Amino acid sequence: MKPIYESITTHSNVSFKVQSYEVSSNCETAGWHIHPEYELVYVKNGSGTLRIGNKIHSYANGILVLLGGNIPHSDFGNKQFKNGKEVVVQFSREFVEGKLGQFPEFATIKRLIHSSKFVLIFDGTIKSQLSHQFERFTELNAQEKLINLFSILDLLSAQKNYIKLFNHDLLYEFREKESYRLRDIFQFLNTHYHQKISTREISEQIGLTPNSFSRFFKKMTNRTFVDFLNEFRVRKAINAMNEGDITIAEAMYASGFRSPSYFAKQFFRYQDMTPSTYLKKIKSL
User: Fold this and answer.
1) DSSP letter, residue 136
2) 3-state secondary structure (DSSP) of residue 10
3) At 22, is the secondary structure helix, strand, or coil?
4) 3-state DSSP of 48-116
5) CA-CA distances (angstroms) from residue 193 to 186, 208, 277?
6) Domain with CATH 2.60.120.10 in the chain
7) Whose C-alpha in 8, 118, 140, 235 is 20 to 30 A from the C-alpha of 17?
8) How far apart are CA 85 and CA 81, in angstroms?
9) Residues 154-203: tens digit of each pLDDT
10) Which residues, 6 or more positions from 142, have their beta carbon under 8 angstroms from its beta carbon?
């Protein structure tokens, strides 16, 4: 069965996504799926089965797993106990290389994350030790969540009590042609988002006709390419505003927009506020 591509989005003011699920609330993604983001999953209790790649791994009394990107898998949680809880933390390669990579002090954490391509299943003792930190995510603000994540990753990076579900890099075995194409699309956008991008140009990069590219992108992400590109550029504009003293016009051009009215329209569509309102908001913090 081909994995469904899961499109993971984060709010403009956060670097990663964290969601908590109770027994009565299911994870939105169900079944066999794939995404480029790293995934750290804490399951409080109960028994269940992990289905990752071609492996099946049963667990009892919950589980703590670190999973690399682009590895097909099914959902991990279970509904065995009424007080059950599942916490899913997802973060991108940009978060690891662009954010953590700036600090040499995070070298051990980076090594841990890079080892996630083998899928790491941690000992029950460390899972219990970290249970409070996972379960308190819902009580924290954005800054506290980031600090909490760093603390969790720091403790995990010092651990030796884990097993590798695989002894080889799964990306070469399980990433199908569609996943390679999505990876190539995202890499192209990361490099060229500030330039004019046409559907014809990007479709040629991945060996499809424009019509085939549009159908492929819609099938894999459930979004049109133009919609995705506009939101991607809005997020780049927001990053530029957050990182330095920059005007709205400078942020607009740096992110690939050329029309002020179109930029304002798209910004409001994805952020529910105008660029000027957003800029005033961050300057007042």
Assistant:
1) T
2) coil
3) strand
4) EEEEECCEEEEECCCEEEEECCCCCECCCCCCCCCCCEEEEEEECHHHHHHHHHHCHHHHHHHHHHHHH
5) 10, 20, 24
6) 4-164
7) 118
8) 9
9) 999 998 889 999 887 655 454 556 767 777 787 788 788 899 999 999 99
10) 13, 14
For β-strands 4-5 and 33-34, DSSP reports them as parallel
pTM of structure: 0.66
Provide Rg for the chain, Cα atoms.
Answer: 20
Q: Rounded to 5 degrees, what are φ and ψ at 151?
A: -65, -45
CA count, 13 A, side-chain hemisphere, 199: 15
pLDDT along the chain (285 residues), means of 10: 60 84 66 82 93 87 93 83 93 88 92 94 96 96 95 94 82 58 78 90 90 86 84 86 86 95 93 89 72
**4-164, what's its fold?**
Jelly Rolls (2.60.120)
Q: What token pair was written down for 40?
A: 């750290």
**What DSSP assignment string belongs to 244-258?**
SS--HHHHHHHTT--
Look at the domain 175-283 and name its fold.
Answer: Arc Repressor Mutant, subunit A (1.10.10)
Nearest of 276, 269, 283, 273 to residue 233 by alpha carbon: 269
Within 13 Å of residue 260, how many CA atoms lie on the same side as its CB? 5
Q: Model confidence over 13-34: pLDDT tens digits?
A: 788 999 999 877 656 555 677 7
Phi/psi of residue 104, nearest 5 degrees: -60, -20
In the chain, list all ranges with CATH 1.10.10.60: 175-283
